[in-house]
């Protein structure tokens, strides 16, 4: 709001400066040099006020930008604070000892499953292995559906077929 008020003040001063300059010219033409001089001094003072107003506007804009940036920084800090609180709560729920215990249990379960797999793999006989391989081959054959091969034998000689049909004979082309 203050910035807008200063802008309006600047416009009023600018318009006043133009009027006073025109009035000073008129006074000089009329031979009233003293009044013109006084008017130009007043104009000069108002120009200085205009410069000060511009500086104040610049300071206000800089302050507004600083405030906006500080608000953004505050939001970032608040987000970091909330994130830090969440991490602390998660650390309270899961201690290092708890994580080590879970990892140990997981390793035990993997080892137990490996032992079961070894027992199952050892219980298969050679006949079972052969049956498994046959079933694998059967599945593989089902997936590969190749086209059927003709059963009749191939001809001995392939008949010659001219690639160009109805081609005029060379003698007729030369005669025309």
TrEMBL record:
- UniProt KW Acetylation keyword: no
Segments carrying the region annotation (Disordered) are 143-176
Q: Which organism is it from?
A: Daphoenositta chrysoptera
Q: What is its main location?
A: membrane
Annotated localization: Endosome membrane
Q: Which GO terms describe its cellular component?
A: ESCRT III complex; multivesicular body
The UniProt entry's GO biological process terms, in alphabetical order, are:
late endosome to vacuole transport via multivesicular body sorting pathway; protein transport; vesicle budding from membrane
Q: Name the source's superkingdom.
A: Eukaryota
Key words, A-Z: Coiled coil, Endosome, Membrane, Protein transport, Transport
Which protein is depicted?
CHMP6 protein
Coiled-coil zones: 43-70
């Amino acid at each position: 709001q203050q910035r807008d008020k200063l802008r309006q003040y600047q416009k009023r001063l600018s318009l006043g400066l133009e009027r006073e300059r025109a009035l000073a010219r008129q006074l000089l033409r009329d031979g009233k040099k003293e009044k013109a001089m006084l008017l130009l001094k007043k104009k000069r003072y108002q120009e200085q006020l205009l410069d000060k107003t511009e500086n104040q506007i610049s300071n206000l804009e800089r302050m507004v930008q600083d405030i906006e940036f500080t608000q953004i920084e505050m939001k970032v800090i608040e987000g970091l604070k909330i994130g830090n609180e969440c991490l602390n709560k998660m650390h309270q729920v899961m201690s290092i000892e708890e994580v080590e215990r879970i990892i140990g249990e997981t390793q035990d379960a993997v080892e137990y499953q490996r032992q079961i797999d070894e027992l199952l793999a050892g219980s298969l006989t050679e006949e079972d292995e052969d049956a498994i391989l046959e079933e694998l081959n059967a599945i593989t054959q089902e997936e590969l559906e190749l086209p059927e091969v003709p059963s009749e034998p191939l001809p001995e000689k392939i008949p010659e077929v001219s690639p160009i049909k109805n081609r005029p004979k060379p003698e007729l082309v030369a005669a025309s």
